[in-house]
Every structure is written in C-alpha cells, then in structure tokens.
Specification:
The complex is a heterodimer of chains A (545) and B (269).
Chain A lengths: L9 H23 L2 H20 L1 H5 L8 H7 L3 H19 L5 H8 L18 H33 L15 H27 L4 H17 L5 H4 L1 H8 L2 H5 L1 H18 L15 H9 L8 H15 L3 H21 L11 H21 L13 H31 L5 H23 L10 H22 L6 H13 L10 H34 L7
Helix pairs in contact in A: 1-7, 2-7, 5-8, 5-11, 7-8, 7-13, 8-9, 8-11, 8-13, 9-16, 14-15, 15-18, 16-17, 16-18, 17-18, 17-19, 17-20, 18-19, 18-22, 19-20, 19-22, 20-22
Chain B lengths: L5 H4 L10 E12 L2 E12 L3 E5 L6 H8 L7 E6 L2 E2 L4 H7 E4 L11 H11 L5 H11 L15 H13 L5 E5 L7 H16 L3 E6 L2 H7 L2 E6 L2 E6 L1 H4 L7 H24 L1
Parallel strand pairs in B: 3-8, 3-9, 6-7, 7-8
Antiparallel strand pairs in B: 1-2, 1-4, 4-5, 9-10
Helix pairs in contact in B: 4-5, 4-6
Classes of the chains: A mainly alpha (545), B alpha/beta (269).
Chain lengths: 545, 269
C-alpha cells in the first residue's frame, strides 16, 4: 500500500487535465462526424480565407482602375473596417462559445446516466473545480485557435503565396500574418473569458439571472454606438489596429489577463455537486392538459413528448439561461435602436432589417433545448428521433415566440415604424421556423457538436446566408435607397466602375415588400420540406446527444 | 494487496487496530426539507471490512458521498485518515480509492487514458506499468484503446474499480462495487478485497446485497430512512444462532417501516 499522498498541486493536475480535455473535445467532435469531415473543416476555412485574400484588393479598392478616389472610398472597405469586422465576428462567435459555466451542473447530474465528462472529475478525483475549469477554458481557446484561426491564417498565407504562380496581387503582406494570428487569437480568448465570466455569475442564480443579460446588452450597445470605442473594448483589435511592435509586446500580458479572468470566474463557480432532492408538484399532467388547448390530440405522441420537453426545461432550471441566450442579442438590438441615430448610419437599418436576425438567434435556444437531458432512455420507448426533433421545435415556439413578438412591437414603437410591424412579424416567424427546421434536419439531436463538421457547416452557411442577406438587403428600401443604388444597380451593371442611376422609391418599396414576403413564403415551404425529410435522415438514428 | 507487483503482495503487514481511519460524529445531511441522513456516529478501525446495508433510498450512497467529500454535511463532522473531510476534501480524495454507485468513467477517454489521468493526478510512479497491470488484471487489455462510452456496463465498472485501485490506497470506499460484474470477476474482486484487508487495508462498503456482508464484512451497520437501525459484528446483531443477515435485515428494516407507518398514523390523528 502506498505512503500518504499530498494533495496534487496546480503544476501536476493542470497539464494532465488540459491534455485529456483536449482529447475529449476532439473525440466528441469526431464521434459526431468522421475525422475526415472534421479535418475538412479547417481545410475549407483555409480555402475560403485564401480566396478572400486573393480578392482582398477588390474589397479594399486596390484592384480597381479607372475610378476616382472618392468613388473607391465610398464603394469599398478600408483595411480598418475589414479588421474591425473580422475581430467583431470572432468576438461575437467566442461570446457564444464561452457559456460553459452552465455545463457543470448538468454534466454532474448526468454522470450516473452513462455519460461522463472530465468537467465532473472534481467530484471524485483530488482536483479542484477552479483548476478544472481553467483547463476547460484554455482547452476551448486552444481548440478554436487550432481548428479555426490557424487554418484561416494558413489560407491567408496561401493567398499571398499564390501571387508567385497566379497573375494576381494582394495587398496583404507576409509580415502581417503573425500579428493577425496573435491578435485575433487574443480577441477570441477575451470573448470566451468574458462570456465564461457572465455565465459564471448567472450560474450563481438570484439577481444575476437578470443583471447579467441586461448589463451585457447595455455594454454591447454603448460600445456599438461608440461611447466606448470598439478598439478599446476588444484588446486584440486594439493591438491589431496599433500594429506596432510595442502593442504586440503587450499581447502576452493581455492573454494572461484573459486567463486570470477565466481563473477568477472559475473560482466564483458554486462548488457543490449536490443533487437537490425536493418534492415537486406534478407538472407533466397540467402541461399535457394545457397542450390540448392548442389543438394537440390526446392520443398524440407529440403532445406527450412536448409536455416532457417543457417539464425538462422548467425543472432543469435552464429556462432563464436559455431565455438569456435568446434575449441578450435582442436586448442589444433594442438598446441600439434606442440609443443610435440611424439617420447617420451608412446602412439604412429599419424594423424589417432586424426581423430576420431575431429568427436566426433562435438557433441558440434550439441548441440548448437539445442539451438539457440525455435522451438515451427514449431508445426503449415507441418513439423515434424525428418525433423528438419535431417536439423540440414545438417547444421552441411555445416558449420563445412571445419574446420575438414583444421585441418587434417594442422596436416598432422605438423606431416609429408601426406600419411595418405585421410584415416584420411575418419575417421573424418565417426565419424562426426555417432556422430551427434546417438545424433539426442537418444536425439532429446534436446541434452543438456539428460546428466542426465541414459538410454540415457548409450546407448550413449556404442555406442561411443567402436568405438572410436577401431579406436584409431588401429591407433597406424601407429607408434610404443610397445603398441599393450603389450595390444593386452599379454592381449588376458594371462592377465598381459602373455609373450610379436614380431609382424610383415607390416602385422599389413595393417590389421590395413583395420580394421580402416571397422569400418568407419560400422559407416556410422549405421548412415543411425539411420537416418531411426528418424521417428519412433521422428515422433510424438512436437517441443520443 | 492492492500493490500491482506480485512481489509486494506478501510485504510487511502493519495492522494498528486502535487507529480509526473513518470517524463520523453527528454527521447529517438534508436536501431542503428531505432528511437524507439523520445525525449518526460511526468509527471504522484500520484493518476492518465495514459494511453499510440498507434498502434502496436508505441513505447509503449519501453516507459514502459525505465521507468522501462529494457532498458537504448539513451537520456534524467527518474525518477520514485523520483528515477533516469538509476542510480538506482533495487531500482525502488523493489518499483513498472510491468506486461510486453507477457512475461511468469519462465517455470520450479510453480506459487506459482514464487510468493514466487518475494516476497522474496522484503523481504515482511507473504509471504505464500500473495501467497495463490493472487492465490485464480485469481482462481488458484488448479494450485499452476503446472509448469508455463504447464499453459495456460491466467493463465500465471494471475501469472504475481499476481507477480506485491503481494508486494502492490504504482505504477504499466502495458503493455497490460488484454491480454489473460477471460472477468470475465478482469472485476475483472479493478475493482481492480480502487480501487487501489481510495486508492491513481497510474497506468501507455500501450495498444492499446481503450475501456480500456475510461473506466479507467484519462489522456492519444497517440503515434505513437515513438512520442507523443497528450496528456491530454479525454475531452481535443475531437474535438467534441460526438467524441470517437477511433475517436480521428484514427484522430491522421491516420493523422500521411499521414504526414509520405507525408514527405517520399517530401524527395524522
């Protein structure tokens, strides 16, 4: 028998936990899609990044000849705008990926159900929660750097290298690659750390459940309207914009600050692995009865599954977190509508511009729905995966549609665009139906695991980007038409060198609304098609998330 | 006996029976209004094979989770290996082996990786050799590279047992350790545990399988509804020479249910 052992210190417990968590993450992703398709994801990113690098001169106007400087500056992006755009995208993406403080309790509660993860190891092993979560944070950051940011940088390098064998030029320099990788990684590390901090506070419950979403949306809005410059809020963007060696020298310290924030967040997590054993009133029957009022038959399996899903949401305590994940971006947009002077914006936002995105945010909520409980027990029941997927879609609408409706009404009031409220609701609902049906068809019960599956992500991107962009652009004619004149007419007629032509606003508005409703009709039709195809794709799949 | 090298199996035995490895004083646990464990005092000496028995939901697992730092007590104190569990749970976990009831190893690690993880956390020597030894001991060498989620329930239980044995702890906490094991490995494990005791080790076991208590335990406690109904050596618990543990169990637990029903009727009146 062994001699008495000391409590393992950080130096001995952190490296092995980090290493094993990295393996665990990789295996989870490979388990969903085959490793070939996972490896295709960075390859796909590298190809897209290479194409963008080759086309960069057109985006920045460097490749345009014959146009005057004023035209070029109006019709193209500056490097600063592109830099801000990419940092903002990565920052928002990482905010979505950092809410793992919520994972702990559900993983702990599921560990005796056949599935277990290293996050639950402090219950059994001599390792503290703080070290475990710090390892998880760094695993997340490094995993995304390896699978997303590094391939993007490789693609940029290939784009630069292509100058030597393709007769093209790119304004991007070899020397800008390392600063790009370092700074964009920093942006990601900061986004995940901030999101982790917010989710940690929310996991403490009580007033934090309300304060965190409101504060998050408020801070987001004041940054967006420029009260706090974005370059100062996103450290990676600051270092990247500064561009000097002095700024880059500070980046290790900034990375360390992000890790310290993650460490503090991990320390704030409630360290208990208790399963609360309390008597509860029966929820299932009352919810099942109420579902009858919306027309679901008493002999329908769907009604039983929806009732079960709603009970899961309410009992798991995740309703507030899920609503938070849905409401934060909406609150952000609402505060923006309240604080921003849209007349001064180069892009004429209006109520119809927001509506498609409300539907799109529903993807977050739908992902949560699929992760509340392990559905494996349903393998022994006379139900199928498509039925559960449809029940989740129903649950999503029953629990969230009112948020979107309230949001549209509030926005209509703030923007004084009541005339567009009905159209905006149609757009919002059509997008909601479309996004969740598409997610269900493409990703089944595991939407969170599909992110690195190149095949799924490519299809998801194509299927969502085109309708969203179409609806977004068409919505502009409800306001200023300058952008449509420059984009639509010029680009279709002759690219960047084309002459601007005046258009008739009345006709354009009418065409636009018809176009918007037409796209919505197509989206709803496609949604029903996806739902019909669920049986073919997931009919024989096991219940596993 | 939990030494992985055969050479160590007959090593020096040091039994100091006066030493208490587990001490609980007034240890209690409530979950809101639900009383999972009423205040209880238990002491387990070095070298004992101590068994806690009771029906489903009696509080056995809660008891073991309190003693191993997986739960915090609502009242009372617990010391394991002389260490206060509430203030130093990780130090306790570093020095004991735990096999929880129906918990799986991490789904996306292989059996070998999980054992490596457990061993490295405790900074033990010759990790690869020990991992291989225990995988071989449990007949799982060919499964060492299989993800734990793809193992059968019995194989997962073997991995959990190996993870409790690999650092050769002096004290083992086992909650239904033989569940899902086939009869061959149940016997093999029983023999291993008895050797552990004969080499000076100590075992705290929870189960509702009474046969195990009769075969293995030197002292038992029967609990139900979160309270100890009886504790002592088997002979002390018997009303008659022929009384089996099952008879004792039914007598004690059955009585307690009658009492509780009687109490609830009295309260209603």
């Amino acid at each position: 028998m062994s001699a008495k052992r000391d409590e393992p210190n950080f130096g001995s417990s952190f490296p092995i936990t980090f290493k094993m968590m990295f393996k665990e993450e990789w295996r989870q992703n490979v388990d969903f899609a085959k490793s070939r398709r996972i490896l295709m994801f960075p390859a796909l990113l590298a190809i897209v990044s290479m194409a963008l690098t080759i086309g960069l001169r057109f985006l920045t106007g460097d490749g345009v000849s014959g146009a005057n400087a004023e035209e070029i500056s109006r019709e193209t992006f500056t490097f600063e705008q592109l830099r801000t755009g990419i940092h903002l995208m990565v920052f928002l993406f990482s905010m979505g990926m950092g809410t793992f403080a919520f994972l702990g309790r559900s993983i702990v509660s599921q560990r005796s159900g056949g599935k277990n993860f290293l996050l639950a190891s402090p219950a059994m092993q001599p390792i503290d929660l703080q070290t475990t979560y710090l390892a998880y944070y760094l695993k997340e950051v490094s995993f995304y750097i390896v699978l997303i940011l590094f391939p993007v940088t490789i693609g940029m390098a290939l784009g630069i290298a292509s100058q030597s064998f393709l007769e093209i030029t790119t304004p991007l320099l070899w020397t800008s690659l390392l600063p790009f990788l370092v700074c964009i990684s920093l942006t990601m590390a900061q986004g995940i750390a901030i999101s982790f901090f917010g989710s940690t506070l929310m996991s403490r419950g009580n007033q934090w459940n309300f304060l965190v979403p409101i504060l998050g949306a408020f801070i987001g809005a004041i940054i967006y309207v420029g009260f706090i410059p974005m370059e100062k809020a996103i450290i990676g963007l600051w270092a990247h914009s500064n561009g000097s060696i002095n700024a880059l020298i500070w980046t290790p310290l900034a990375f360390l600050s992000c890790a310290i924030l993650a460490w503090i967040s991990a320390g704030l997590l409630p360290e208990d692995f208790e399963v609360r054993i309390t008597g509860r009133d029966d929820l299932f029957i009352p919810i099942y009865e109420k579902l009858g009022k919306i027309g679901l038959r008493s002999d329908s399996r769907m009604r039983i599954l929806i009732a079960k899903e709603i009970v899961d949401v309410l009992r798991s305590g995740t309703l507030l977190k899920m609503l938070g994940s849905f409401a934060v971006p909406l609150l952000f947009l609402l505060l923006l509508a309240w604080g921003a002077d849209f007349a001064s914006f180069p892009i004429p936002f209006n109520l119809l511009s927001y509506a498609p995105f409300i539907g799109f945010f529903g993807f977050n909520f739908y992902s949560w729905l699929n992760a509340i409980d392990a559905p494996d027990h349903l393998n022994t029941m006379p139900v199928s995966v498509p039925e559960l997927l449809k029940a989740n879609i129903w649950t999503y609408f029953l629990l969230t549609s009112w948020i979107g409706v309230i949001f549209i009404l509030l926005m209509a009031g703030m923007l004084d665009q009541w005339n567009d409220a009905v159209s905006a609701m149609i757009v919002m609902l059509a997008n909601s139906i479309y996004i969740v049906s598409l997610s269900a068809w493409l990703m089944g019960l595991r939407p969170n695991k599909a992110i690195f599956d190149s095949g799924i992500m490519a299809r998801f991107w194509v299927a969502t980007a085109f309708p969203l962009i179409g609806l977004f652009v068409l919505s502009f004619t409800k306001g200023d038409t300058t952008l449509l004149e420059n984009w639509g007419m010029q680009v279709s007629a002759g690219g960047l060198n084309a002459e601007a032509q005046a258009i008739e606003l009345e006709n354009r508005q009418s065409t636009s609304l018809t176009g918007i409703l037409g796209i919505c009709a197509i989206l709803v039709s496609l949604s029903f098609l996806y739902l019909r195809l669920l049986k073919r794709k997931w009919g024989s799949a096991p219940f596993e998330n | 006996m939990l030494s992985w090298k055969e050479a160590n199996l007959n090593g020096p035995v040091s039994k100091t029976l006066s030493e208490y490895l587990v001490e609980a004083e007034g240890l209690a646990k409530r979950f809101g209004d639900f009383v999972a464990l009423q205040p209880l005092d238990v002491k387990v000496q070095a070298g004992e094979f101590f068994g806690v028995f009771g029906p489903n939901g009696a509080g056995k697992s809660t008891f073991i989770r309190l003693l191993t730092g997986q739960l915090r007590p609502s009242a009372g104190t617990a010391k394991v290996l002389g260490i206060n569990v509430d203030s130093k749970p990780r130090l306790v976990k570093a020095n004991i082996g735990i096999v929880p009831e129906s918990e799986s190893p991490p789904s996306y690690l292989t059996a070998a990786e999980f054992l490596e993880f457990v061993a490295r956390l405790r900074n033990i020597d010759e990790i690869n050799e020990k991992v291989n030894y225990w995988l071989d001991w449990f007949g799982m060498t060919d499964k060492s590279g299989t993800l734990c989620k793809d193992l059968s329930k019995g194989q997962r239980q073997k991995v959990m047992l190996a993870s409790a044995f690999i650092h050769e702890p002096r004290l083992l906490f086992l909650d239904e350790p033989f569940v899902n094991l086939d009869p061959i490995y149940q016997r093999k494990c029983r023999e291993l545990l008895l050797k552990h005791i004969s080499n000076g080790g100590t075992i705290f076991l929870c189960s509702h399988i009474l046969e195990i208590a009769e075969r293995l335990c030197t002292r038992v406690a029967v609990i139900d509804h979160g309270r100890v109904l009886a504790a002592g050596k088997m002979n002390d618990l018997r009303n008659s020479k022929d009384e089996t543990l099952e008879d004792i169990f039914i007598r004690l637990v059955g009585k307690s249910i009658d009492e509780i029903e009687a109490e609830s009727i009295t309260e209603e009146e």
